[in-house]
C-alpha cells in the first residue's frame, strides 16, 4: 500500500469554506461511521464530540482519494485522537466495533427511529423513549400521546417521506413549483437550493427560494403559492410561518437557529407520470396508486436578503457552519441567513450575489457543487 500523503493534504484548511467538496466521497467507509458517531453524541447531548466527528467526516469527504493508512492523514486538520482510533479500527478490521455497539443500543435505535418521523426532534424522541415506547406502532396506539399536526402528517405519510427523493423527482417538483409561482407572478425569482443545488442524487426533501425583484412585493407571495397548490389538489400538508424579519435587529447571529423569513414546510403529492423516466413504469408492484408524497420547503426572503438566504439554504449544514465560524474568527464578521456584519467597521455589507459574500469574506468563490462538506 502506498502510504504517502496525497500532495494536496499539506494545505487542507480547517474550514470547509476553504475546501472544495464534491458529492464524490472517496472515504465513505470512514465518514458513514463518523456521522453515526456524531448522531449518537447528539442524542446524548455531547455537543463537543458531535461537532468533532462531523468536522472530521467533513475533512475526509474533501480528500481527492481514499485513505489507506494512518500515515496518509498526518497533518490533516480536525482529526483528533478519538477519530484516528476509529479510523485505525476500520483500516485494521474493516469495521468499527464502537459503532457496532452503538447500532445495537436500544436507546440509539429508538431515538433514530422516532426522529425519522417528520416533526419529531430529539427532545420529543427522548420523551417517548423515557415513557418506555420503542416502536412507531407503540406511539400510534399509546392513548396518552398527543401528536401535533406536523407529527400526524409525519406518521400519515411516513413510508413515502422516509424514502429518499431522487433527482428526477426533485426536477418534477421543480416544474410544478415553477409553473405555480410564475402563474401567480411572472417576474418572480425562483431558485432550487439545498442538496439538489449541490448536485446530490438523492435528498430528504426539495428546497426552494423565491422572491420578487421589487422590495416588499414578496410579502403575500407564499400564501398565494399555497392557495394555488391547494387548487391543483396536490397540497397534502402545509405549515406556513410568516416573516418575523426585522432589519433593525440585524445581525441575529443565533447560528443554529432558523432564519426569520416567511417560509412553508409542505408535503406535496407527486404523480409518478410527471417524473422523467418513470412514465408508465410501476416501480413497486405492491404500490399501484401511481403517486408519492414529497417534502418540499419554500422560503421567501426580501430581494435585498436573497444572496444571504441562498448561501444559507444551499448548505451543506457543515459548509454553512464553517462559513460563519470563519467569518467570526478570521474576519471579525457575523454571518447568518440574513446579513453579513463587519464588527470592525460596524456596518452591514451589501450583497446581491453569493460571489459578493465570498468576496467580502476574502474567500475564493466555492461553487454550490463544491459545498458538499
Ligand atoms: P437533504 O437532507 O438531502 O435535504 O440535505 P439538505 O442539505 O438539502 O438539507 P436540508 O433540506 O435540511 O436544508 C437545506 C439547507 O438549509 C441546509 O444545508 C442548511 C440550511 N438549513 C436548513 N434548516 C436550517 C436551520 O434550521 N438552521 C440553519 N442554520 N440552516 C438550516
Ligand atoms: Mg434538502
Brief summary:
The chain has helices at residues 28-43, 47-61, 81-93, 97-104, 106-115, 122-130, 136-141, 149-156, 158-161, 167-184, 194-197, 221-231, 306-314, 317-331, 354-360; strands at residues 165-166, 189-193, 202-203, 206-211, 235-241, 262-271, 291-300, 333-335, 340-342, 347-349. It has 373 residues and is α+β, with helices and mostly antiparallel strands.
Question: What key phrases describe this protein's structure?
Answer:
3-stranded antiparallel sheet; DNA polymerase, domain 1; 10 strands; 14% strand; globular; binds magnesium ion; 4 domains; 373 residues; Beta Polymerase, domain 2; 5-stranded mixed sheet
List the helices and strands and how they pair.
Elements: H1 28-43, H2 47-61, H3 81-93, H4 97-104, H5 106-115, H6 122-130, H7 136-141, H8 149-156, H9 158-161, E1 165-166, H10 167-184, E2 189-193, H11 194-197, E3 202-203, E4 206-211, H12 221-231, E5 235-241, E6 262-271, E7 291-300, H13 306-314, H14 317-331, E8 333-335, E9 340-342, E10 347-349, H15 354-360
Parallel strand pairs: 4-7
Antiparallel strand pairs: 1-3, 2-4, 5-6, 6-7, 8-9, 9-10
Helix pairs in contact: 1-2, 1-3, 5-6, 10-12
The structure holds 2'-deoxyguanosine-5'-triphosphate and magnesium ion (MG).
The site of magnesium ion has 6 residues, from helix 11.
